[in-house]
Structures are given as C-alpha cells and as structure tokens.
User: Which sequence fits this backbone?
C-alpha cells in the first residue's frame, strides 16, 4: 500500500480481527506498533521500522486504563486523534486500531497476565499493577491484530523485557523488537509526558540523560561497583535540583536482577518526577 | 485420517507448532482435547466429539505441575503412556502431544494467567494457585496447537467456565466446548482419581452423585432456598459416612456467584475426600 493511501481506522475488535484474518489468508505478514497515542518521533521510528518488517503495518492507539494506578494520569493523559492521524501520514501505516475502553474491557472482564519476576523491580515496585495491565492489553492486541512482529521502544526497557518474556513463556508466534530510544538534540528521551514540562522543567529534565551518560562514562573508565556508579549519576541529578527520584539503578539487562558489580549489557535506569511529569530513561552499559 | 492409522506422538513444542502450522496452511481445522492422561471414558467422549468437529484431532497429555499444590498428588498422579495410547486407538486421534515438564516450563518461565473472579470460589478457595496453573497451561497449549476448537468435560465445571472466560477475555480465536459428565452405571462420575478408591470407598463415593440428584429432585419439587437444598444434599453424604466434605454449594451457572434462591441453570457442585481421593461432581439445576 502506498503512503498516499488513506489510513483505515478500525474501532472494534471484530472488525480488526476480520481485517487481519483476511490479510493472513492472502499470506500477508503484519507488523504491529502498540501505542497510547500522543505520538512523537519515538513512535514514528517504530512505525518506519515496522513498515520494513512486514507487508502490512498496523498501529494501535489505546490509552489502557488497567496500566494506570488510581492516583495516576489516566484521565489527563493526552488524547489527540486528529493530530495522531496527521503525524502518521507518509509513513505507510495501513490501519489504525483505536478501540474504546469498553471494547477492550467489556463487562465481566477478569483475565490478567503477569510476568511475575520481571515486573517486580524498578517501575513495577512503584506502580503496583502497572505491568499486569500492560502485559494483559498487549496480549489482547497480539491476539486481535495477529501480528507477526511487534515493535516497542527501549525507553520503556522493563516493559520491552516483560513483553519479550511473555511472548516466549506463552509460546506466541510473534517476534518482539525493541528499538533504540529516540532523543531530542539535547539528549532528552522523547516521551508523550514531556508535554507536561515547563521550559524550566525541561532544563532540569535533561539531567536524567546526563546522569545516565555519567554512569556509562564512569563504567567505561573502569568503575565497576554499581554503588559508586549510581552515586555518580545521582550527583548529576542533585546538581540539577531533581530531588524526586523514584530510582536510579543498575540491573542485569535480561533478568533485571540487582548487581553489585556492573558488566557490559547491564542497564542503568532512572525514574524521576520533574514538575508534574514522571519521566523515565535508561542506557545500556 | 482413518482410525487404523498410526497416531503421531509429538514431544516437543517446536515440532507440535510445525505440525499444526503445516495443517493450517492447508486450510485444515484442528480440535484439541487437553488431558493429564490416565484416560477414561470421559476423555474418550471428548475425543469422539472432537473427531466430528474438525479435520484434525489432537490430544495433549501433560500432568501439569503448576496446577498441583505442594501437598497434592502430582508425583503419584497416574502416568500410563502405553495404556493411554492403546485406549486412543480406533477413535481417530491424529496426534498426541506429550511434552515433558521442562518443555512447557523451561528455566526462567514466569508468566501466569489468572481469571480473577471465577477462580475464587469452590475448588479455587481450597486449592490456591490451582486455576492459575490450569489457565496458564491451557493458554500455552492453545498457542502451541493452534486449535479451532477445544473440548473440556463438564465434570470440571469451574475449570470449563474459567477457560471459556479466558478465551473471551483474551480475544482468542477458539471455540470452547463443555461436554456432559460421563458416569459409571452406578452414577459415579468418571475420574482418573477413582483408581485410588477401594471397593468400600467406591460405595461411599456414590453418595456424591446421589446427593446432587437429591438436590435436583428437591429443586424440581419446588424448594428454592439454597440453604435447604444444600442441607438435603449434605444429609445424603452424612448417611454414607462421607465426612470430609470440602463443599456442597449451589452457585450461578455462569458467574459462580453465591445464591440465596436457586434458579434453573444454577450448578450444584460438591467436592469431598473419600479414602485417599479428592472427588468432585456437579449437576445443573
């Protein structure tokens, strides 16, 4: 399908299944980019790669209530249907699946998936139920869209590892790809939540990526003790007056286990609140 | 495939997937009968129905460790590979999937599915984690075998309703069929665990189905209060000296919610220990 073509917008599950089933019968492969909308360059990079990986590119836009905690920003999360559709032009998206919450969670819904170890640390420790909601909705999207490949951003590193593990553990026939973080020129990781930041907060937010670069640079210079590495990163955050730090940790890149000594392939991950926004970022050592 | 043909025995996941994928490419439909082996007439009735429902009939035999509690009978559960294969002759089974536990749960496995409300009452209240193990392994089997239809016995009523709900909630493309309980001439529901019973225990075990028939007969005669109905059933168990009763309850046939007044379609369910065996049975009012 050429990039000039109109994007098919599908709002209900049965129609999405019929669309995918018809394509699969023709032998077409499908790539899925699951999003919550409020699209930015990070999402678009996933779509461009998805475009190359399969015959058909489906993007889902669904702000998933089950992955937000009661005190989190579900209601105020940005929703911009027309803006999102506009941004997807010229990328070659074939269909956008944008169901409402009742279509995904009809009355009586009660089945949840949990990736029990990988969801424990980092964001999982601070956002109870978050990854249960993520894994559940992603499994549903996989079953509805019947994709051969699904693309996720490495910015949500723990999410990416959880989805990879779920796909393996549940014997799904889908390839999970994690794509590098897309950053502003300043180094700030692209995020829909950056829209919450004032100009001053944006400046402070830069310290997250700088702290991770400091950790990586200390590691490259021979420091292995994770405690020392983490301290060097935390000093960068302190100097920028980012005080509301949920975590800055170094963990095994696959199991997300704690480490005393860092090794190549480990991930340094940070989460902090800047202004009204909770931001996350990570870097692979 | 004719019933004289040799049954294909498959022990590993990749081979089972390849088998099913090849058939699906040819446009063949697949019926799955998931079992833990120790086959009896109840299982065979599922297979005979499965044979009619699809082009290919696959039976899985897997004693699933994650659905047994630490004090339960996982290790002593009957395993009779040759006897099971013998019983399946002349039914028209195309393939038997008999993986080992490490094939289904390789190192690092950690993803589980829970049907959170339906798993709470009845057996779920007494066997913590049982239905989490059941739902997880059944979802894996569905993904591996890629069946169009799966057949379950109504003897495991709660299990049947949980699998039905899971399939709906996770948007699976599979039809779930529950088939009527197959009973001995005496009324005893067929169960692999009946093999644990002495002759004397078998006599006592008959009181389970009799208790349910008593409940149903009282209901047919106009008694609606579940408390009275349950009492009439419990008296039958007492008279047979079945004292170790886990539950005898009447619940909504779909939601498994408690009822004060019984209505048609409700289920009366019983679980009790007789000799060394934990037996279950149920009847629809």
Assistant:
């Amino acid at each position: 399908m050429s990039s000039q073509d109109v994007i098919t917008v599908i709002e209900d599950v049965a129609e999405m299944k019929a669309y995918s089933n018809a394509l699969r019968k023709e032998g077409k492969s499908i790539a899925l980019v699951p999003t919550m909308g409020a699209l930015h360059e990070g999402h678009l990079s996933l779509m461009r790669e998805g475009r190359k990986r399969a015959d058909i590119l489906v993007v889902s836009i669904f702000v998933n209530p089950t992955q937000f905690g009661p005190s989190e920003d579900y209601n105020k999360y940005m929703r911009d249907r027309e803006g999102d559709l506009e941004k997807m032009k010229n990328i070659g998206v074939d269909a956008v699946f944008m169901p409402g919450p009742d279509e995904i969670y009809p009355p009586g819904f009660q089945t949840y998936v949990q990736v029990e170890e990988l969801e424990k640390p980092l964001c999982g420790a601070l956002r109870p139920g978050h990854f249960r909601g993520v894994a559940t909705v992603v499994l549903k999207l996989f079953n509805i869209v019947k994709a051969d490949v699904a693309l996720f951003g490495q910015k949500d590193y723990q999410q990416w590892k959880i989805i990879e593990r779920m796909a393996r553990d549940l014997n799904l026939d889908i390839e999970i790809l994690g794509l590098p973080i897309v950053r502003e020129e300043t180094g700030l990781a692209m995020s829909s939540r950056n829209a919450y930041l004032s100009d001053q907060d944006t400046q402070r937010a830069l310290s997250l990526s700088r702290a991770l670069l400091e950790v990586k640079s200390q590691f490259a210079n021979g420091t292995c003790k994770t405690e020392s590495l983490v301290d060097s990163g935390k000093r960068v955050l302190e100097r920028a007056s980012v005080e509301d730090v949920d975590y800055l940790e170094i963990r095994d890149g696959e199991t997300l286990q704690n480490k005393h000594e860092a090794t190549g392939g480990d991930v340094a991950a940070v989460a902090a609140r800047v202004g009204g926004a909770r931001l996350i970022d990570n870097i692979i050592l």
